[in-house]
Amino acid sequence: MIGLLKIGIGTRSTALLETTGHRSGRQRLTAVTNGxxxxxxxxxxxxxxxxxxxxxxxxxxNVRVKTRGRWRCGVAHLVxxxxxxxxxxxxxxxxxxxxxxxxxxxxxxxxxxxRINFDDGRT
Length: 123
Description:
This protein has a single domain, classed as Electron Transport, Fmn-binding Protein, Chain A (Pnp Oxidase, Chain A), CATH 2.30.110.10. The chain is of the alpha+beta class. A seven-stranded antiparallel sheet has the order 2-1-5-6-7-4-3, sandwiched between helices. It is built from four helices and seven strands, in the order H-E-E-E-E-H-E-E-H-H-E. The two termini are 23 Å apart.
């Protein structure tokens, strides 16, 4: 999936999240549901802080997101938001993401919400 996203296929429903590995310090790419909402990006992670990318962003909150064909820099925050409501908002804003949000529900063990505030001064 990451390879397809890199060349622009599947970008309406899915985005790329780039974090810095909390142990390696290397850049890591993760495919996530496209939760773009203006100057913010929303993720509902189905495995909470057990997911590697969540541990990475907790160690270094500076991330990049590739959505709609361009990279945007931002700062990620775990937030106290209702994951059910947030998934519905993501699906309502991006109907192509509905399949992705259904997958999140089916495989979820610990739903958590992440908000990324974009800082478009950096790329």
